[in-house]
Amino acid sequence: xxxxxxxxxxxxxxxxxxxxxxxxxxxxxxxxxxxxxxxxxxxxxxxxxxxxxxxxxxxxxxxxxxxxxxxxxxxxxxxxxxxxxx
Length: 86
Hints:
Elements: H1 7-18, H2 26-53, E1 55-56, E2 61-62, H3 65-72, H4 74-85
């Protein structure tokens, strides 16, 4: 300990200073708005899609039936194979 502060506290302070977040400016607010909009319009729908792909609406349980049906189709197997080949 140096000066009554722990190493993690000193490290957090350095990261905080490195990001120049000590004051709010116009661009800080714009950046926060863009991050929030990305979460709302990109991350949330994508995560919702992933969750629904493993959820069976008839039994209300987690299942891999949809994944097996997807991988059972020849077209999709070929498409996935081509993606991993490149």
